[in-house]
Specification:
By secondary structure, the chain is an alpha/beta fold. The chain folds into five domains: 1-97 and 197-219, 3-Layer(aba) Sandwich (D-Maltodextrin-Binding Protein, domain 2); 105-185, Periplasmic binding protein-like II (D-Maltodextrin-Binding Protein, domain 2, 3-Layer(aba) Sandwich), CATH 3.40.190; 221-297, 2-Layer Sandwich (Double Stranded RNA Binding Domain), CATH 3.30.160; 304-331 and 451-530, Rossmann fold, CATH 3.40.50.10090; 334-450, Rossmann fold. It has 18 helices and 24 strands. Helix 11 packs parallel to helix 12 (378-386). The longest helix is centred in the N-terminal third of the chain and has 17 residues, at 13-29.
C-alpha cells in the first residue's frame, strides 16, 4: 500500500479540475492513500504571447512537469493527452486513464450574439493550425486571429468583443461546467479533432511498480485502444500537436473505426479517409490509414532538400510526407580513434553528447559496475537504451551553457566525478562550464572526417533553383565548401551554433531551426514554406 502520492499538474483551472477528477477515481479504489497536488507552471503557461504555430518544442506544456518527476519531487503527473509528445522520455512511462470525454471541437459565440451559424461570422479565434485549416475549408472568407490563454481567458476575450466566435474542445468546456456556452458541435465531416483530444494521461517513473498497479485500476481499455491508434496515425504522417493533421478513432460494437485527414501542402487541401476493422484485428489501423492517405498526396512541386549529415535520416521523414524531394549526400564520416580511460570506476557519471559518442564508447569499453549516464538529446538517449542502459537525465537543449546550467540546477553531478565523452572536433565550452561545479575529465573517442571527392550528381542538383541544403554541423559545411559553391544553394541550418559558423565564413542562412534536432529542422522547413 502507498501512504502518499504527490501529483503534478499544470496550474490552470482546467488542468486542476482534470487532476481532481483523476484523484477522485483513484481515491475510491485507494481510500487509505493521501493525494497531494503540486501546481507546476510550464513554458506553455508562461509564454502566452508566443504563436503556437511557430513553436517547435514538443514538450512545450509538459517539460517542467516531467523534470519534477525525474527529480522525484512528484510521484505522478496528470496531463491532457494531446499535450504529451508521442516520443516520451525513456525513464518515464505513461498511458491513458478514465473514460475519454467528448473528443469533438465546438464553436462558442460571444454573449448576446444572435448569429449561430459559422458562415455568418467574420472573425474566429483559435491558435490551432489544424482548426484554422479545417475552418477555412468550411468558410473560406472568415478571418482567423490567434487566441491563447486558458479556457476562461479565451471566453473573456470573446465576450469583450475581440472575436465573433472561438473554437474550443468540447471536453474542456464540459469538465469546467461551461457546456451551456457551446453554440455548435462540429461533426467529423466538418472538423476532425486532434489525436488524443478529450483523453487524460498519467505519467510516472519507469519501474515504479507500486504506482503502476494503482494507476492501471482506472484505465479504460476502449479509450487506450483508440488514442494509441490516433497517436500511431500522427506519428506515421510525421505530425505533432501543432500540425494541421487530424484523426479520430472510436470503438463501438466490436468494431474499431478511424477517420483521418492529412494536409497536402502543395494543393492547400486536405486528403481524408477512414478505415474499419474488427476489434482484436485492429492492430496498426492508424498506421495503415496514414500510409493510405500519404499515397494520395499530390506530386512533388520540385522542392529539393539536400541532407548533408552522416548516418540515419529517419528524423526527416515529415519532409517526404510534405512532398519535398529529399536527397542524402553525407559530407562527413565518423571514425573511431584510439583513446584511454584511466580508472573508469572512479567516475560517478558518464556524459554522452552525441549518438556517435555512445556507439564508439561501447564498441571499445565494457561497463561492469553500476554506472550512471547523462545524455544530450533524445537521439543520444535512444542509442544508449539500445545498449541496455538508461539515462539518469537527458537534456533537450544542445547549447553548452544551457546544458551545464540544467545539470547544475538538478544537482545531479555537483562535486561528482564526471567523464565527458565527445568527438575530437567538439568545442571545449561544455567541459569549461562543467568544471565550475564538478570534477570532469574529457575523453575524445572519434574523429569527424570530411569527404575526399566531389559528387557530379550533387553538383547538378545544387545548380537547380529549387534546391535547399541542410547543414547539421560546421564540419559538414566545411566539407561542402571544399567542392561546392554555397552561393548556388539556399542554406538551412540546424541551429544557432551552425548558423554562426556559416555566417562567420561570409554566407547567409535562409533559415535556422528553433529546435536543434532533425525533427525540429524538418518542422521549421515545413512551416517556412507553408507560410509563403
Amino acid at each position: 500500500m502507498i501512504d502518499k502520492l504527490i501529483v503534478g499538474s499544470r496550474a490552470s483551472n482546467l488542468a486542476l479540475t482534470q487532476t481532481k477528477y483523476v484523484i477522485e477515481k483513484l481515491q475510491k479504489i485507494n481510500p487509505n492513500t493521501e493525494f497531494v497536488v503540486k501546481k507546476i507552471k510550464t513554458k506553455g503557461d508562461i509564454l502566452l504571447n508566443k504563436d503556437l504555430n511557430k513553436i517547435l518544442d514538443k514538450g512545450f506544456f509538459v517539460n517542467e512537469i516531467q523534470n519534477e518527476l525525474l527529480k522525484s519531487s512528484i510521484d505522478i503527473a496528470i496531463h491532457s493527452l494531446k499535450d504529451l509528445p508521442s516520443e516520451g522520455n525513456s525513464n518515464l512511462e505513461s498511458f491513458t486513464v478514465t473514460k475519454r470525454e467528448d473528443p469533438m471541437d465546438v464553436l462558442v459565440v460571444k454573449k448576446n450574439l444572435k448569429i449561430k451559424e459559422l458562415k455568418d461570422l467574420k472573425l474566429i479565434g483559435t491558435s490551432s493550425i489544424r482548426r484554422q485549416e479545417q475552418i477555412q475549408m468550411i468558410h473560406k472568407d472568415v478571418k482567423i486571429k490567434s487566441l491563447r490563454g486558458n479556457v476562461e481567458t479565451r471566453i473573456e476575450k470573446l465576450d469583450k468583443g475581440e472575436y465573433d466566435g472561438i473554437i474550443l474542445a468540447a471536453a474542456g468546456l464540459k469538465r469546467l461546467g461551461l457546456e451551456k456556452r457551446i453554440t455548435k458541435y462540429f461533426d467529423v465531416n466538418e472538423m476532425i479533432p486532434a489525436a488524443g483530444q478529450g483523453a487524460l494521461a498519467v505519467e510516472f517513473r519507469k519501474n515504479d511498480k507500486k504506482t503502476l498497479s494503482i494507476l492501471k485500476k482506472i484505465q479504460d481499455k476502449s479509450t487506450e485502444i483508440c488514442v494509441n491508434e490516433e497517436r500511431n496515425f500522427l506519428k506515421t504522417v510525421g505530425g505533432g500537436c501543432s500540425s494541421p493533421d487530424a484523426v479520430l478513432c472510436v470503438s463501438q460494437e466490436n468494431k474499431v473505426k478511424i477517420e483521418g485527414k492529412i494536409y497536402d501542402i502543395n494543393d492547400k487541401k486536405y486528403i481524408s479517409g477512414n478505415m474499419v476493422k474488427d476489434l482484436g484485428n485492429h492492430k496498426d489501423i492508424g498506421v495503415k490509414l496514414a500510409e493510405q492517405l500519404i499515397s494520395k498526396l499530390s506530386p512533388s512541386i520540385n522542392k529539393h532538400i539536400i541532407l548533408t549529415n552522416e548516418g540515419d535520416i529517419s528524423g526527416f521523414k515529415s519532409l517526404v510526407k510534405n512532398n519535398f524531394k529529399v536527397h542524402h549526400y553525407p559530407l562527413i564520416e565518423i571514425k573511431p580513434i584510439k583513446f584511454k580511460i584511466n580508472d573508469l570506476k572512479r567516475y560517478d557519471f558518464i556524459i554522452f553528447t552525441s549518438k556517435n559518442g555512445v556507439k564508439n564508447f561501447f564498441h571499445k569499453v565494457k561497463i561492469s559496475d553500476n554506472k550512471k549516464f547523462i545524455c544530450i538529446g533524445s537521439k543520444t538517449e535512444h542509442i544508449l537504451n539500445k545498449y541496455g542502459y538508461q539515462s539518469t537525465f537527458t537534456s533537450k537543449r544542445n547549447y553548452s551553457e544551457i546544458m551545464a546550467d540544467e545539470l547544475k540546477k538538478n544537482k545531479l553531478i555537483n562535486d561528482k566525478n564526471v567523464l565527458l565523452v565527445q568527438g575530437e572536433i567538439a568545442k571545449d565550452d561544455l567541459n569549461v562550464e562543467l568544471k565550475k561545479f564538478c570534477n570532469v575529465d574529457r575523453v575524445n573517442i572519434y574523429s569527424t572526417n570530411t569527404i575526399k571527392d566531389s559528387n557530379e550528381k550533387l553538383k547538378k542538383l545544387i545548380s537547380k533553383k529549387s534546391t535547399f541544403t541542410v547543414f547539421t554541423s560546421p564540419s559538414a559545411f566545411d566539407s561542402f565548401t571544399k567542392f561546392y559553391n554555397p552561393n548556388k544553394t539556399k542554406i538551412i541550418s540546424i541551429g544557432k551554433t551552425t548558423s554562426k559558423y556559416i555566417e562567420s565564413k561570409g554566407y547567409d542562412c535562409m533559415l535556422t531551426s528553433q529546435m536543434q534536432s532533425y525533427e525540429g529542422i524538418s518542422g521549421s522547413i515545413i512551416k517556412h514554406f507553408d507560410q509563403l
